[in-house]
Specification:
Distance between the termini: 39 Å
Largest sheet: 4 strands, parallel
Shape: globular
Bound molecules: iron/sulfur cluster
Helix content: 40-55%
Oligomer: single chain
Number of domains: 2
Radius of gyration: 21 Å
Length: about 475
Amino acid sequence: MNEISKRVQRISVGDKPQYYRYPDEIREEFIQTDDIEFRDGSRVIATEVWDYLTRVGPVKFPNLYDDSNLYSRRLSRDVTLPFALKNNYLAMTLHDRMTKAKGHPIVFVQGGQSVDPYYAAGAIALRPATTGSWARRQREGLTRNQDELESEAEKQKAYNAISFEICNSAGYEHIQEGSVPADLVAPYTALRCSDVSYGTEAHRHGPRKDDVKLLLVDYPLDHQRDKEWAITYFAENLRRLTRNIDALTGRTTTEDDLAREIKLHNQGRRLAIEIAEMWWSAIDPPTNGQDRRALLGVGGMEGHGDPVASLSILREARRSIEKRVREGHKTKGIRDNAARLFVCGSCVSPNSARTEEAGGIIVGNDNHWSDISTIVNESGEPYCELAKAVLSYPYEQPIAERARWTVEQIRKSRAGGVLFLYKWGCNTQSAIARALVDEIKAQSGVPTMIIEDDMWRTQTEQLQNRVNAFVEMVSEQ
Ligand code: SF4
C-alpha cells in the first residue's frame, strides 16, 4: 500500500461541504487487525468496525466526517493507525452501547479522578466530555454547523439553569435535561474545577434532584497526601461511594472487587505511560497531536464507558507506536523540527491540526495526565491504597509541587514552550495560572504564555492566532 493510497480520500456530496471517507484500499489490511473486546465478554471484529466507519458512520454523523481543519472535534484521519480508527468507532457507538448497558447505573463524575471504584461497584462513570459525546451521538444526520448550533443552544440552557459565571464545560445540562439518563451525580470535590460546586449546587435545586441522587466524594484539599487522617477520611468517602452505588444495583461491592478493578485500570495506566514515553523518545513525532491526545485519553479508561474496550485499543496502540518509533516513522503534516508545545490547564486545548499547519505540535498536557500517570499500589487495603494515589495527583498539589511535576513532564516530552490555557469561568485554574507558569519558567527556562479562552466557538480564531504567534516564537529559540 503506498502513502498516497493510504491518505483519506476527499469526496464532495452535492453542493454540501466536503466530507472524507476511508479509502477502500486499506480495507484488506485493516480487517486483519485485532478485535475490540468489551467488558460484557462480547467482541467486535475489525470487519464490523470497517463497515461501521465506511457505511453507518457517514450517514449517522456527517458532522464528524467534515473535512475542515477548522473543526477540532473530528475523527482521526490517519488511516495507517488501525487503533485510531477503532477509537473512532467506539466514540461513534457510545450512545448505542450505553443504551444497551442495562443494569449498570450511570454515574456523572468530573475532572481528574480515577474511575476504578465506580466500575468496581458495577456502575459506568462518565466525565463531562463523555457525557457530552453521548448526548451528541443521539442526534443523527447533522452537518457540522447544525451540530455546533445545537450544542451551543444546550450550553445556553445550562448557563440559565446554573450561573453565567461558570465555564460551562461540565455537561450538567444533559443531566438537568435528562438527555443522558444518569442515576447518580458523584464527583470528587477536587480543587481543580470550580464547576463542581456550581453544578452540584444547581443540581441540588434542579428539576432532576428527586430522580438523580447527589453524592459528594469529599476530597481533603491542600497537601494532605501524607496525612494519615486524610487518607482514612478519603478512603471512607470511597467506601460510601460504592455503598451508594450498591443501593442502586442491589449487590455488595467487596474489597476484592475493588482490588481487581484497580489491577485492570493499572494495566491501562501502565500502557498509557509506556506509550507516552515511547512517543516522547522519538526524534520525529510518531503520530499527530490529535491522535496522541486521543490515545492518552483512552488511558484514563473512562472515555468509552468500557475500560476493557479501552484496554483493547491501548494494547494495539502500544505495538503500533513501538513499531513507528523503531522505524523512525515521519508523520504526514508534521514539519521537521516542529515547535514542541506542552499545554497546561483544564478542559481546553488549541486545534491540533492548525497548530501543526503553523509549524508546531502539542506533545503533552498536564490535565488528566496527572491521574492517568499515577499508579495505584496493588498490595494493601484497596480503598486506602486508592485514597493515597488519588490524594497524590500532582495536579491537585500546591503550586510549587505541581510546577515541579510539570517541569519533569516538560523535560521528558522535550517541549520547547509551555502554554497555559484556561476557560473563562474556570476559577481555580485562572487564579493559579500566573503563579504556576512563573514557577515553571523559573525551573525550566522555557518560554511560556497564558491565554484565556471563551467557552465554545466564539473565540476560536483569536485563540489560534495567539497560539500560532507562540509557535513562531518557540521555533526561533
Ligand atoms: S474548565 Fe475548569 S471549571 Fe470548567 S469544567 Fe474544566 S476544570 Fe472545571
